[in-house]
Amino acid sequence: MVATFFVVELVAALTSGSLALLTDAGHMAADVVALGAALIATRMATRPDRTGERTYGSYRAEVFASGIAVLVMLAVSAYVVIEAIGRIGAEAEVASGTMLVVGAIGLAVNVVSLILLRSGSKESINVKGAYLEVMADALGSVAVIVAAVLVAATGAAWWDTVVALGIGVFVAVRAVMLGREVIRVLAQHAPQDVSAECVANDLAAVPGVAEVHDLHVWTLTSGMDVATAHLVTREDADGQRVLAEARAVLVSHHGLAHATLQVEKTRSEECHEADW
């Protein structure tokens, strides 16, 4: 549906001479890429690994798919700005009627896509990328409708260029926001809602724990936060009990259901913080 409308909008943009409509068509192309990548990545993420090499599976495929969507959105924004600058001072004829009709149809298509993607966007950065892309395109369709009305009412074709620039800037801002999330995951930063310092303090507060070191917390993919840590226990502590309580703390306080904890009676010389 989205791919079909992209072709329709592109043809309409070229025949009407509307930069705003062409911008929205470019953004719709980004939608096609984002949705296609989201579908492929979702299937890859759930596919079992038979090679034995991908010990974490293929879950991060969705993060890479989101990165592709970011690049497409930035490319569309750059093209719009360059094209708009080239139109400054030039006379342009814009078919406002075509803009209005196509913009309205585009808005309807995007609203349907948003309804289908809304629930999944809360659970997956991949689907979230596609959702934000479609949301931005829906606003772009609204902007096309506004531009068509302004051009028809005033006869000034430069309204089309102004609206196109606005769409381009909006798309760029959304791309940067999503891009920051993608980089945060790929750089293995601590999840935004998890403080490594708080995790360390809570583990240190577990009865029997004397020291916490070599703590790492990161996001594997959307909804999958993981952690590793070494716990040095007191001499009289029950290691298994400490381990069970520490895992319970990670789950209940920080939502870290997947954690690898190593319990040590003393901190040996061979066990030290990674220096890389």
UniProtKB/TrEMBL annotation:
Location in or out of the cell: Membrane
Lipid bilayer topology: Multi-pass membrane protein
Record-linked Gene3D superfamilies: Cation efflux protein transmembrane domain (1.20.1510.10)
Leader sequence residues: none
InterPro entries given in the database record: Cation_efflux (IPR002524), Cation_efflux_CTD (IPR027470), Cation_efflux_CTD_sf (IPR036837), Cation_efflux_TM (IPR058533), Cation_efflux_TMD_sf (IPR027469), CDF/SLC30A (IPR050681)
Domain Cation efflux protein transmembrane residues, every copy: 3-186
Transmembrane region(s): 20-42, 63-82, 94-117, 129-151, 157-177
Main subcellular location of this protein, as a coarse class: membrane
Domain of life: Bacteria
Coiled-coil ranges per UniProt: none
Record bears the keyword Transmembrane: yes
Ranges of residues in domain Cation efflux protein cytoplasmic: 195-265
Keyword Transport: yes
Keywords attached to this entry: Ion transport, Membrane, Transmembrane, Transmembrane helix, Transport
A Pfam family recorded for this sequence: ZT_dimer
NCBIfam families associated with the record: CDF
PANTHER family the UniProt entry points to: CATION EFFLUX PROTEIN/ ZINC TRANSPORTER, RE54080P-RELATED
Family: Belongs to the cation diffusion facilitator (CDF) transporter (TC 2.A.4) family. SLC30A subfamily.
Name assigned to this protein: Cation transporter
UniProt organism field: Demequina litorisediminis
